[in-house]
Amino acid sequence: MSRRARAVFGRFGVAAVVAATVITTAAVGASAAGGGHFTTPPAGTKVTGNLKTGTFMVFKGTINGIPITVNCKTFTSTGKIPAKGLSITIKVPTIKGCTDSIGGTDTLVSNQTNGKWKTTETIAPGGDTVKLVIPKDGATFTSSLLPACTLTAEPSAAGSVAGPYDNVNTVTVTNGKIPLSSSGCSASSSTVSATVVFSPNVSGAS
Q1: Helix (H, G, I), strand (E, B) or coil at 78
Q2: Per residue in 77-128, pLDDT tens?
Q3: Are 63 and 13 in contact (CB under 8 A)?
Q4: Nearest partner of 95 among 20, 37, 169, 149, judged by Cα
Q5: N or C: which end of the chain has fewer CB within 10 A?
Q6: DSSP assignment string, 135-155
Q7: Cβ atoms 134, 114 nearer than 8 A
Protein backbone atom coordinates (compact mmCIF):
# COMPACT_ATOMS: atom_id res chain seq x y z
CA MET A 1 0.00 0.00 0.00
CA SER A 2 1.22 3.50 -0.87
CA ARG A 3 2.16 5.98 1.85
CA ARG A 4 -0.67 8.21 0.69
CA ALA A 5 -3.24 5.43 0.92
CA ARG A 6 -2.06 4.47 4.40
CA ALA A 7 -2.36 8.06 5.59
CA VAL A 8 -5.84 8.23 4.17
CA PHE A 9 -6.83 5.05 5.89
CA GLY A 10 -5.38 6.12 9.22
CA ARG A 11 -7.16 9.39 9.24
CA PHE A 12 -10.49 7.99 8.22
CA GLY A 13 -10.29 4.89 10.34
CA VAL A 14 -9.98 6.92 13.51
CA ALA A 15 -12.87 9.08 12.56
CA ALA A 16 -14.81 5.99 11.82
CA VAL A 17 -14.25 4.26 15.10
CA VAL A 18 -14.64 7.44 17.10
CA ALA A 19 -17.74 8.29 15.25
CA ALA A 20 -18.86 4.79 15.86
CA THR A 21 -18.18 5.26 19.53
CA VAL A 22 -20.22 8.41 19.49
CA ILE A 23 -23.20 6.64 18.02
CA THR A 24 -23.02 3.77 20.43
CA THR A 25 -23.17 5.88 23.50
CA ALA A 26 -25.96 8.02 22.18
CA ALA A 27 -28.29 5.09 21.99
CA VAL A 28 -27.40 3.76 25.39
CA GLY A 29 -28.01 6.90 27.36
CA ALA A 30 -30.86 8.94 26.00
CA SER A 31 -31.22 12.11 28.06
CA ALA A 32 -33.11 15.31 27.87
CA ALA A 33 -31.86 18.86 27.92
CA GLY A 34 -33.59 21.50 29.99
CA GLY A 35 -35.64 19.28 32.27
CA GLY A 36 -37.91 16.31 31.84
CA HIS A 37 -37.63 12.82 33.24
CA PHE A 38 -37.46 9.19 32.20
CA THR A 39 -40.80 7.42 32.37
CA THR A 40 -39.25 3.98 31.82
CA PRO A 41 -37.31 2.08 33.02
CA PRO A 42 -37.01 2.81 36.77
CA ALA A 43 -34.14 4.91 38.13
CA GLY A 44 -30.96 2.91 38.62
CA THR A 45 -31.71 0.50 35.77
CA LYS A 46 -28.69 -0.39 33.64
CA VAL A 47 -29.25 0.10 29.92
CA THR A 48 -27.12 -1.54 27.24
CA GLY A 49 -26.90 -0.36 23.64
CA ASN A 50 -26.09 -2.43 20.56
CA LEU A 51 -26.20 -1.99 16.81
CA LYS A 52 -29.49 -2.94 15.21
CA THR A 53 -29.30 -6.60 14.21
CA GLY A 54 -27.86 -7.06 10.75
CA THR A 55 -26.40 -3.55 10.48
CA PHE A 56 -22.96 -1.94 10.74
CA MET A 57 -21.64 1.39 11.88
CA VAL A 58 -20.53 2.88 8.59
CA PHE A 59 -17.94 5.65 8.35
CA LYS A 60 -17.12 7.48 5.15
CA GLY A 61 -14.66 10.15 4.18
CA THR A 62 -12.18 11.36 1.60
CA ILE A 63 -8.58 11.65 2.69
CA ASN A 64 -6.04 13.19 0.37
CA GLY A 65 -8.59 12.67 -2.41
CA ILE A 66 -9.00 8.96 -1.61
CA PRO A 67 -12.49 7.79 -0.52
CA ILE A 68 -12.49 5.46 2.52
CA THR A 69 -15.26 3.40 4.12
CA VAL A 70 -14.98 1.73 7.54
CA ASN A 71 -17.48 -0.84 8.83
CA CYS A 72 -17.70 -1.81 12.53
CA LYS A 73 -19.56 -4.98 13.47
CA THR A 74 -20.18 -4.62 17.21
CA PHE A 75 -20.08 -2.27 20.19
CA THR A 76 -21.09 -2.18 23.82
CA SER A 77 -22.02 0.88 25.84
CA THR A 78 -23.88 1.21 29.13
CA GLY A 79 -25.42 3.78 31.42
CA LYS A 80 -27.85 3.98 34.34
CA ILE A 81 -31.21 5.73 34.42
CA PRO A 82 -30.98 8.77 36.75
CA ALA A 83 -33.41 9.48 39.57
CA LYS A 84 -34.05 12.96 38.14
CA GLY A 85 -33.75 14.61 34.77
CA LEU A 86 -32.91 13.14 31.38
CA SER A 87 -29.16 13.48 31.34
CA ILE A 88 -27.06 10.33 31.62
CA THR A 89 -23.35 10.02 32.23
CA ILE A 90 -22.20 6.92 30.40
CA LYS A 91 -19.18 4.67 30.45
CA VAL A 92 -16.70 4.94 27.60
CA PRO A 93 -17.91 2.69 24.76
CA THR A 94 -16.22 -0.43 23.47
CA ILE A 95 -16.21 -0.85 19.68
CA LYS A 96 -14.83 -3.90 17.89
CA GLY A 97 -14.72 -5.66 14.55
CA CYS A 98 -13.83 -2.59 12.47
CA THR A 99 -12.36 -3.03 8.99
CA ASP A 100 -11.82 -0.61 6.13
CA SER A 101 -12.18 -0.60 2.36
CA ILE A 102 -8.41 -0.73 1.79
CA GLY A 103 -7.80 -3.92 3.77
CA GLY A 104 -6.89 -2.70 7.26
CA THR A 105 -8.28 -3.34 10.75
CA ASP A 106 -9.01 -0.56 13.24
CA THR A 107 -8.49 -0.26 17.00
CA LEU A 108 -10.25 2.35 19.13
CA VAL A 109 -9.43 3.35 22.70
CA SER A 110 -11.88 5.77 24.31
CA ASN A 111 -11.29 7.67 27.54
CA GLN A 112 -12.69 10.20 30.02
CA THR A 113 -9.44 12.01 30.80
CA ASN A 114 -10.87 15.46 29.99
CA GLY A 115 -14.51 14.89 30.85
CA LYS A 116 -17.35 12.40 30.88
CA TRP A 117 -19.22 10.91 27.96
CA LYS A 118 -22.84 12.05 28.18
CA THR A 119 -26.08 11.98 26.23
CA THR A 120 -28.81 14.56 25.92
CA GLU A 121 -32.31 13.92 24.64
CA THR A 122 -34.38 16.83 23.39
CA ILE A 123 -38.11 16.15 23.43
CA ALA A 124 -40.10 18.14 20.89
CA PRO A 125 -43.50 17.92 19.13
CA GLY A 126 -41.78 17.32 15.80
CA GLY A 127 -39.74 14.40 17.14
CA ASP A 128 -37.13 13.62 19.76
CA THR A 129 -33.39 13.94 19.22
CA VAL A 130 -30.51 12.34 21.08
CA LYS A 131 -27.14 14.11 21.19
CA LEU A 132 -24.00 12.33 22.29
CA VAL A 133 -21.36 14.48 23.95
CA ILE A 134 -17.77 13.38 23.35
CA PRO A 135 -15.14 14.82 25.71
CA LYS A 136 -12.08 16.62 24.37
CA ASP A 137 -9.55 14.08 23.08
CA GLY A 138 -12.14 11.45 24.03
CA ALA A 139 -10.94 8.68 21.73
CA THR A 140 -7.83 7.64 19.84
CA PHE A 141 -7.44 5.32 16.90
CA THR A 142 -4.68 3.27 15.30
CA SER A 143 -4.62 1.17 12.14
CA SER A 144 -2.95 -2.16 11.45
CA LEU A 145 -1.73 -0.67 8.16
CA LEU A 146 -0.27 2.48 9.70
CA PRO A 147 0.96 1.76 13.26
CA ALA A 148 2.83 5.07 13.51
CA CYS A 149 -0.40 7.00 12.95
CA THR A 150 -2.61 7.98 15.89
CA LEU A 151 -5.88 9.84 15.38
CA THR A 152 -7.66 11.74 18.12
CA ALA A 153 -11.32 12.75 18.21
CA GLU A 154 -12.50 16.22 19.27
CA PRO A 155 -8.98 17.68 19.63
CA SER A 156 -10.08 21.27 20.39
CA ALA A 157 -13.03 20.86 22.78
CA ALA A 158 -15.88 18.54 23.67
CA GLY A 159 -18.14 17.91 20.69
CA SER A 160 -21.26 15.99 19.79
CA VAL A 161 -23.23 14.09 17.16
CA ALA A 162 -27.00 13.77 17.08
CA GLY A 163 -29.84 11.85 15.47
CA PRO A 164 -33.59 11.26 15.77
CA TYR A 165 -34.78 9.01 18.60
CA ASP A 166 -38.10 7.12 18.61
CA ASN A 167 -38.43 7.51 22.41
CA VAL A 168 -38.70 3.73 22.68
CA ASN A 169 -35.35 2.07 21.97
CA THR A 170 -33.81 3.23 18.69
CA VAL A 171 -31.60 6.16 17.69
CA THR A 172 -30.38 6.73 14.14
CA VAL A 173 -27.43 8.90 13.22
CA THR A 174 -26.80 9.81 9.58
CA ASN A 175 -23.55 11.40 8.45
CA GLY A 176 -22.65 12.72 11.89
CA LYS A 177 -19.39 14.67 11.70
CA ILE A 178 -16.43 14.30 14.07
CA PRO A 179 -13.28 16.48 13.86
CA LEU A 180 -9.89 14.77 14.16
CA SER A 181 -6.26 15.58 14.79
CA SER A 182 -3.39 13.31 13.81
CA SER A 183 0.13 12.28 14.66
CA GLY A 184 2.30 10.46 12.15
CA CYS A 185 -0.27 10.94 9.37
CA SER A 186 -2.83 13.47 8.07
CA ALA A 187 -6.44 13.77 9.27
CA SER A 188 -9.34 16.19 9.54
CA SER A 189 -12.82 14.66 9.87
CA SER A 190 -15.20 11.91 8.77
CA THR A 191 -18.90 11.05 8.90
CA VAL A 192 -20.68 8.22 10.68
CA SER A 193 -24.02 6.53 10.15
CA ALA A 194 -25.53 3.91 12.46
CA THR A 195 -28.72 2.61 14.02
CA VAL A 196 -28.47 1.68 17.70
CA VAL A 197 -31.03 -0.19 19.79
CA PHE A 198 -30.90 -0.36 23.57
CA SER A 199 -32.38 -2.68 26.14
CA PRO A 200 -34.53 -2.33 28.13
CA ASN A 201 -36.60 0.33 26.33
CA VAL A 202 -35.97 3.92 27.43
CA SER A 203 -38.68 6.58 27.24
CA GLY A 204 -38.63 10.20 28.39
CA ALA A 205 -41.16 12.97 28.92
CA SER A 206 -40.81 16.74 29.17
Answers
A1: strand
A2: 899 988 888 888 889 888 889 998 888 888 878 899 999 988 888 888 889 9
A3: no
A4: 20
A5: N
A6: -TT-EEEEETTEEEEEEEESS
A7: no
